[in-house]
Amino acid sequence: MSMKDSLLYVLTIIIWGSTWIGIKFQLGTVDPMVSVVYRFALSSVILLVFCRLRGLSLKFSFKDHGFMALLGLLLFSVNYWLVYVAEVYLTSGLVAVLFSSIVFLNIANGALFLGAPVERKMVVGAAVGIVGIGLIFMHEIESFDLTDKNLLGIAFGFSSVLLASLGNITSARNSRADIPVIQANAFGMGYGALALAILAISLGKSFDFSMTLPYVGSLFYLAVFGSIIAFTSYLTLIRSLGADKASYSIMVVPVVALIISSFAEGYIWSVSAIAGLILVVGGNFLALHRPSPTA
């Protein structure tokens, strides 16, 4: 990877690895679905104002708006709500394992919809990484059983991953159509928030708001850092590296989250978790490393 891509990669995993702290402060008074609406609506408004102040063009064709709306529906809307629903039935560790499969889905969907080549080293690296994630969350996997509740959680979780993967592919398609990432995110997040708001209203959700410092502060952190900066970095990586390679960062995110947790909450690393960490890092190297050209 280039230096720019490396910086974007590190920025993505560090920010998303820390967003669990902000999400903790979002839970409580306000319904999670409504909080996601607030998050992406705020992100959209900030980005649109930024585009206007910087003189970035906001004029796009009806077709372009259609694909930006599709991006919003797949990546900034229902898939986030499905993660919350999945975690009602499954532990966060199992959800993290499920989300690791996005690398394989991006490889398959990229080949299917965009004709992207399937690289052997990417498949091997992804396989090594997902084994590593499995080792990190071994205790939670061992406690899993095939009850109706758990199967329902897997269905919700995998649906979220599938939508996110298709959103990644849509972003790659939009980049090929020369739709800038910042403007695509500005409109996409707005469309996604609108769609989720309509769903929330249809489900009878109450649009409450908590004027407490923890809620408002975490909302701004998730909107600015977790959404604007992280998604801009991540989708720029998709434009540069492809959806398959960029999505490996999502596999590294839970590792970063646990490293932060070890300092913030006293998380203790087991032998299997350390082995998993080594495999995730090793899989990352296999998937993304480009050998130096020989003379």
Automatic annotation (TrEMBL):
This is EamA-like transporter family. Its main location: membrane. It is found in: Membrane. The keyword Transmembrane helix applies. It is a multi-pass membrane protein. It comes from Desulfotignum phosphitoxidans DSM 13687. Residues 7-137, 152-287 form the EamA domain. It comes from the Bacteria. The chain crosses the membrane at residues 7-27, 33-53, 65-83, 89-115, 122-139, 151-169, 181-203, 215-237, 246-263, 269-288. Belongs to the EamA transporter family. One of its GO terms (cellular component) is membrane. PANTHER family: EAMA DOMAIN-CONTAINING PROTEIN (PTHR32322:SF2), INNER MEMBRANE TRANSPORTER (PTHR32322). Pfam families: EamA. Keywords: Membrane, Transmembrane, Transmembrane helix.
